[in-house]
Amino acid sequence: MKPLRFVVIGSGWRSLFYVRIAKAYPDCFQLSAMLCRSEGKAELIRDQHAIYTTTSVKECEELKPDFVVVAVNKASICQVTKEWAGKGFPVLCETPAAVELADLQELWRLVQDEGCKIQVAEQYFHYAYYESAIAVCRKGYLGNPYSVNLSAVHDYHAVSVIRRLLDIGYENVKIFGKKYTYPVVETDSRYGVIEDGRVSQRDRVRLTLEFEGGKTAFYDFDGIQYHSRIRSRHVTVQGERGELDGQVLRYVGENHRAREAVLEMIPFDSGEGIREVRLGDEILYQNPFSEKYGLPEDETAIGTLMLGMRCYIEEGVEVYPLAEGLQDAYISLLMKEAAESGTVVESKSQIWTNKII
Q1: Running DSSP on this structure, what letter comes out for residue 126?
Q2: Quick one: angle between helices 155-166 and 128-138, nearest 10?
Q3: Using CA atoms, how far apart are residues 269 and 291, in angstroms rounded to an integer?
Q4: Domains along the chain?
Q5: What b/e sequence results for 239-258 when a residue is b if at least 16 CB atoms lie within 10 Å of its CB, and e otherwise?
Q6: Per-residue pLDDT of the chain (357 residues; tens, 9 = 90+)
Q7: CA dist., res. 108 & res. 116, Å (int)
Q8: Residue 3 phi, psi dihedral angles, 5° rounding
Q9: pTM of the predicted model, to two decimals?
Q10: Helical pair 15-24 and 297-315, crossing angle rounded to 10 deg
């Protein structure tokens, strides 16, 4: 098959993930252009990354890409997605799909009423660990999973992982909790290690999510967890028959005897990236890309979504259903409201859940 041709709208930090993916997997993807807001930024990106950049929307349209990646700032994602979807291009938009409920509803209307093609680049459930954890839950090791403690990813990413671990779908939810502020020494960042002893004040959000079916999630997150050498991440899922605590699985096996097993994360020979995850003889996760490359998990997960765009474009099979991306963003808005107000916030069924509001 010919590589999927795509254009990236936006030139920020997030857009560069797509550059690295295209360079690593030229047999799968061809980055036709990156659309930048200014000539200066276009020249800088062109020189630093050896890709074609432009400030011309018309030029990007005339390239006739198979799909468009919208990787602009959060406040602009929805508007830019609507613009490019309205031009007839399939769109893979970065998260969140929108930051206002009315905009989330409008995106659904565009797809349902006008036939626009929009998907959301929610990548975390394609991480080797999360995909494996979800597989453990679906295979019944825990029985019916009813509780998650998640201190690993934020907002809409967390909602996506929680809903999949608990197999919740679009259940309504009550959310309550609080935001705290604590000092912490900075030790790492997107751009490298920090060793000057600087201290910052960081918000830590602790929320309880009670779903209408009786399942519960406990969300605990501080943004520094993404880039810190003194703050770790934690995931625990429990059901009546067992518990997955990080990579350790404890469950009731044959003859009602308690068992223990470990999710084995097997890297590529190069040491970069996860090739597969095993639970004994079972393969829970298989990297969809060649061992030749072995990119980090973020790029691998996003690349997995990009691979799925071919089936979406040609067969209508969704990569990450738009309804799911909208639900993630909607619940995330309520989480923010609950944390800031300190009150109980309740969701309502939205138009993408096929229920009456």
Answers
A1: G
A2: 30
A3: 8
A4: 4-121+303-319 (3.40.50.720), 125-287 (3.30.360)
A5: bebbbbeebebbbeeeeeee
A6: 899 999 999 999 999 999 999 999 999 999 999 999 999 999 999 999 999 999 999 999 999 999 999 999 999 999 999 999 999 999 999 999 999 999 999 999 999 999 999 999 999 999 999 999 999 999 999 999 999 999 999 999 999 999 999 999 999 999 999 999 999 999 999 889 999 999 999 999 999 999 999 999 999 999 899 999 999 999 999 999 999 999 999 999 989 999 999 999 999 887 778 999 999 999 999 999 976 667 888 999 999 999 999 999 999 999 999 999 999 999 999 999 999 999 999 999 999 997 433
A7: 9
A8: -60, 145
A9: 0.94
A10: 80
Beta strand 216-222 with 242-245: parallel, antiparallel or unpaired? unpaired
297: number of Cβ within 10 Å: 17
Helix 155-166 / helix 322-341 crossing angle, nearest 10 deg: 120
Q: Assign residue 232 a region: left if phi > 0, alpha if psi is -120 to 50, beta otherwise?
A: beta
Task: Tell me how far apart the alpha carbons of residues 294 and 297 are, in angstroms, rounded to a whole number.
Answer: 9
